[in-house]
Amino acid sequence: MIARVIVTPKPVVNDPQGITVKQGLASLGFREVVDVRVGKYIEVNLEGSSEHEARQRVEAMCRQLLANHVIEDFRFDIEPEHKRR
Amino acid sequence: MKFGVVVFPGTWSDRDCGWVIDQVLGAELTYLWHKDADLKGCDCVILPGGFAYGDYLRTGAIARFAPVMEQIGEFADRGGLVWGICNGFQVLCEAGLLPGALIRNASLEFRCEWTNLVVERTDLPFTSRCEEREVLRVPIAHGEGSYFADPATLSRLEQRGQVVFRYCDPGGRVVPAANPNGSLHNIAGIVNARGNVLGMMPHPERCSEAELGGTDGLKLFRSVAENALKVLVS
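Above: the input entities. Below: the structure tokens describing the complete assembly.
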């Protein structure tokens, strides 16, 4: 089973990286870009367990370590092993 | 009076702190390795600057799992003096010993420069040698020193007077132009509600001898040395 975790800065947190990337895109001519937020993508490979249990475990991992709740939000998908080919 | 300076893999200001403690201040010094399971009878524990565990994931995120951190948490609970400088401040926030977080500087640059700090608390063991609203000249050196806390936490910090240092101009005015990193409310350092855990981004250990361009940092070390023995660790 694989968990694909996405961690993003909370909307209220200033994201200077996102602002800078937005400016870069604008200077390349991508004028339609309204906002950019830069976060992290984390893949976690898990053994065994049901998808339900894996979901609970990954939720706990995010709360305890992968994201800092003061400044970051997280979301994730669980992909069962058999779909990975 | 014994200072303990914590060394994680990737810490870089441990020797600078150690030098001030035993060569300039003349106090007793011991280094605490991140795997140490006791604090060797220290009266004040310093978490110095650097990049503990490479600052992997987030600054201070991995350091909080070090065995020594468990001891430091218990020490802080008993009222012991804990002083986080730069990366040490980031570690204390990640460990939940101080509220808020330090995020990327608004400029995206690593800022290495002198700053002015107005001292807003002089009743603390860390600042008793400072004058009321004294302006200290202390250097910073960080890429992620922008203090952030949610509005409720921030107003609680302000109401309880937990902001100890704010970036200011040389005249002591807290103005946006004096803010080097985008910290909310120009915050450079905060203390916990009990007043025994201090976190600050600027480096007092780098301005404790005239040869280094200033001695304002030594006031903080002297304050701690004077007061640590008075602090009752129950």
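Note for the figure: The longest strand of chain A covers residues 2-9.
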